[in-house]
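Long-time lurker, finally posting.

We've been working with Cellobiose transport system permease protein (Amycolatopsis jiangsuensis) and I want a structural starting point before designing mutants. I don't trust myself to interpret raw outputs, so I'm hoping someone here can both generate the structure tokens and explain anything notable. Sequence follows.
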Amino acid sequence: MTRRRRAGAWVYVVLTGVVGASIFPLYWSFAVSSRDNSAIGEVSPLMLPGGHFFENVRRVFDTVDFWLAIGNSLIVAGTVMVSNVVLSSVAGYAFARLRFPGRNSLFLVVAGSAMVPAQLGVVPLYLLVNDFGWYGRLEAVIVPALVSAFGVFWMRQACEGAVSAELVDAATVDGASVLRTFWHVAVPAIRSHAAVLAMITFLGAWNDYFWPLVVLDPAEAPTVQVVLSQLASGYYTDYALMLTGATLGVLPVIVLFLLLGRYLVRSIASGVRYG
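Top reply, 14 upvotes:
Generated this for you. Predicted structure of Cellobiose transport system permease protein:
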């Protein structure tokens, strides 16, 4: 048996520095959001929180329809997350463990589509959304993002490394259908990878600003990023108000990470093991 090596003190120092550098922007945003706007112009840096956070929160909800924006963003990001995990997992399993004509060529097309800049499809996609009558509705943001080439590639690699071909063949010999084999053999093995994909997809959909700004009405169906841009607009920028909105907008992402973060560690560990 191999002996596990214990990390030295310098490892903890480096990790502490990395964690501190990662958390500091969030802490600084909260510190600014808990002050009034006049404190930002002070010479001394803002390091300690003040006592105006809840007052600034009230001003955010009075200035913009933040509840509606949070609800819309949760619907969009949640639907896109679930759809990407399900469809990408099924497609990734098919590309990794099923045999059908043109499998490799079709996978090259899917992987190659990830190299096409998204900006090239804005105009034709906008025309399609307008023809379907989805302009100003959440379907215009949800449907184009239901599945992604990155998600298919990610889950295909996960199935290649985590799902044993021998187990799939054994389940097939025992008479299990493709869906039953996928559910009982593949899903338990790729669960951590699917959780990582869920976090990445949710974060991308939650932070998307350009496409919702193009196809949604900011007054009728705003998202969080759109209302944050409204807080930052105008001749006079209220930094306390803007960073209070940013602090509120990042809370759902932090909650999701706390719920699924352990799967990220498992995915990294399995990647090292399979590598």
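Before you design anything, note these points.
Residues 64-274 form a domain with the MetI-like fold fold (CATH 1.10.3720.10).
The chain has one domain: 64-274.
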